Design the sequence.
């Protein structure tokens, strides 16, 4: 049975605007994500999808609008408060962004040490092991990122975000550059994460297999605004030319 | 009108970049002395920058000492002043040649490596990942590297001085016989505080320049992997150029302060 808490909004984005010089990328974009929901933001390259999720964690500051995550106004946070909030938000980068100079184990320990501050080494090792288990890559602690395949890098990237038990996950094109089979494995992994950790996710993608498998709801981002919204099936049936082009 | 724009465009770009480097340097001082401090990373970088540069600096310094001595010998022989060789060689090595050559070698080795490493982290979003992991990437990457180059390059210069002088000793002995004891006695009789102190002080500035320029070029990298190569290259060119300017200013300042 769904309680009201399960449907409570976790991420609320209102009228967000962002321009880079003359290029207005987001033009009053709004979106609400509920607890346990997977929302896919679909759009063509260069339409500001990545900028949107970077605004959520304040890697990019929006020009206007408001962004609330777990009831906190992200745009009014001071540095320390922002760090504390970022610990609750997992971010999988498009390139996985693993630190080349560190081993897989050190990559996973890095956010743990940074956010926890205290020295809890034994606990760290267990948490790293458990995070690697959850992405199916047990025993890779001593490997360097250069030794990993694209799919493995994505998995390690996900493990690195999971290690802090985030409540919200942001995935920036998680299947880009992967073959269809590995892409499907990553999609399944995202669903497992949602189920196991009860996270809410915003997934940026233009891979229709990813959208179909992972989305509870799809938002189409066109011209900097939320152009259309609905389930995968609803949008697939849409007669709108701009929406149809994604499904054809 | 467009001709004038083309003419002034390089000047404008130069001034813009100089302004950006000045701002970056200001940010270093603002962030660098505020806790928390990244001691672990500072130690790691100091090891990478200092210890790992020892073979290259030693080899270069040794060759420099040897060559300078061999080439100075005939000129002094004409005036029958061969006994002055250790003194003359030591002053030129300690005051000028070792600091500048070590700085240029380090600009090539360390400056390019800092530019390329931070640059590749920038284009592969590792810096963003660091930020969302609760780390100030400027402190972790830039402050630690700039402090390491500022601390390590003077140490490398002192070490290089010693190796270059030893090269000089071998150079003196190619055509004559001077004991090691006599050689060092002649060296230290001539070398004064006014020779050593300015040399170390300017090495501190050389190190700072190499660190700040390498970090700046890396941190502002754009255009993917092509940009990384360009940043590494620019880090070497700009820091080498500034090393010469600092050297010129240091020479003038030493002269004004009667340290020559």
Sequence:
């Amino acid at each position: 049975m769904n309680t009201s808490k399960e449907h409570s909004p976790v991420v609320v984005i209102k009228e967000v605007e962002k321009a880079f010089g003359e290029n207005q990328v987001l033009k009053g974009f709004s979106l609400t994500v509920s607890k346990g929901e997977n929302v896919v933001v679909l759009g063509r390259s260069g339409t500001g999808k990545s900028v949107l999720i970077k605004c959520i964690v304040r890697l990019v500051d929006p020009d206007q609008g408001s962004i609330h995550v777990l009831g906190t106004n992200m745009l009014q946070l001071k540095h320390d408060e922002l760090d504390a909030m970022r610990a609750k938000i997992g971010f999988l980068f498009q390139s996985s962004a693993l630190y080349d100079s560190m081993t897989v184990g050190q990559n996973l320990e890095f956010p743990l040490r940074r956010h926890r501050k205290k020295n809890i080494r034994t606990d760290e090792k267990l948490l790293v092991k458990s995070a690697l288990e959850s992405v199916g890559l047990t025993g890779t602690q001593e490997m360097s990122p250069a030794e990993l395949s694209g799919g493995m890098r994505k998995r390690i990237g996900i493990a690195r975000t999971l290690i802090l038990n985030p409540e919200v996950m942001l995935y920036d094109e998680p299947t880009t550059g992967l073959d269809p089979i590995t892409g499907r494995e990553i999609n399944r992994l995202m669903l497992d994460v949602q189920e196991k950790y009860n996270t809410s996710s915003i997934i940026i993608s233009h891979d229709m297999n990813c959208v179909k498998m992972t989305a509870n709801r799809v938002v189409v981002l066109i011209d900097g605004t939320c152009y259309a919204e609905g389930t995968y099936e609803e949008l697939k049936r849409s007669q709108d030319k701009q929406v149809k082009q994604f499904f054809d | 009108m467009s001709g004038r724009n083309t003419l002034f465009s390089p000047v404008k770009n130069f001034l813009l970049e100089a302004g950006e480097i000045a701002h970056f340097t200001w940010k270093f001082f603002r962030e660098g002395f505020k806790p928390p401090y990244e001691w672990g990373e500072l130690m790691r970088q100091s090891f990478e920058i200092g210890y790992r540069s020892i073979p290259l600096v030693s080899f270069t310094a040794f060759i420099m000492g040897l060559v300078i001595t061999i080439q100075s010998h005939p000129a002094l022989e004409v005036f029958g002043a061969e006994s002055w060789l250790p003194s003359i060689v030591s002053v030129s090595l300690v005051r000028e040649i070792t600091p500048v050559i070590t700085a240029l070698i380090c600009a090539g080795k360390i400056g390019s490596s800092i530019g390329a490493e931070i640059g590749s982290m920038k284009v592969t979003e590792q810096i963003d990942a660091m930020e969302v992991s609760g780390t100030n990437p400027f402190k972790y990457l830039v402050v630690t590297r700039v402090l390491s180059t500022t601390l390590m390059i003077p140490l490398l210069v002192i070490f290089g001085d010693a190796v270059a002088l030893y090269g000089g000793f071998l150079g003196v002995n190619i055509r004559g016989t001077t004991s090691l004891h006599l050689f060092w006695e002649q060296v230290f009789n001539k070398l004064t505080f006014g020779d050593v102190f300015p040399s170390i002080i300017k090495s501190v500035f050389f190190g700072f320049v190499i660190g700040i320029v390498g970090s700046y070029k890396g941190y502002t990298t754009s255009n993917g992997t092509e940009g990384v190569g360009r940043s590494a290259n620019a880090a070497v060119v700009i820091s080498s150029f500034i090393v010469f300017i600092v050297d010129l200013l240091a020479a003038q300042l030493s002269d004004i302060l009667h340290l020559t």
Q: What stands out?
A: Residues 85-123 of chain B form the longest helix (39 residues).
